[in-house]
């Protein structure tokens, strides 16, 4: 599996993957994450800003994620409750990670890509997203506390440095 920059032409493939990821969340008991989110407009904004990436199995798009890196790529991470970040160094962040049922290993591929760009990665996830939390813990991410996203809802925050 490999990663490439997403293009606007990928939208027709990305959005069904997001819908399938949402359905998988519901099947695992996560009933409130990604209600009406992320929209096609948000994904297109990711792509136009150079933050949208697709995972490919051969030439088939099987996953999507947003990756940003730098001094402060996510202002929602400025305040953390119930803990602290591992460091204050520049970091990368993955958002809107979506995979369907066509391929396994999309989360690992996405995070491997992020770590190939920067050795310090933060991520947040919905408290009900147990599969993602399990992935993060299994792959060496430390739970750091709670952050709040733009709509005011809490997210469990994790970080890993290599």
UniProtKB/TrEMBL annotation:
<dbReference type="InterPro" id="IPR000182">
    <property type="entry name" value="GNAT_dom"/>
</dbReference>
<dbReference type="GO" id="GO:0016740">
    <property type="term" value="F:transferase activity"/>
</dbReference>
<feature type="domain" description="N-acetyltransferase">
    <location>
        <begin position="1"/>
        <end position="162"/>
    </location>
</feature>
<dbReference type="InterPro" id="IPR016181">
    <property type="entry name" value="Acyl_CoA_acyltransferase"/>
</dbReference>
<protein>
    <submittedName>
        <fullName>GNAT family protein</fullName>
        <ecNumber>2.-.-.-</ecNumber>
    </submittedName>
</protein>
<keyword id="KW-0808">Transferase</keyword>
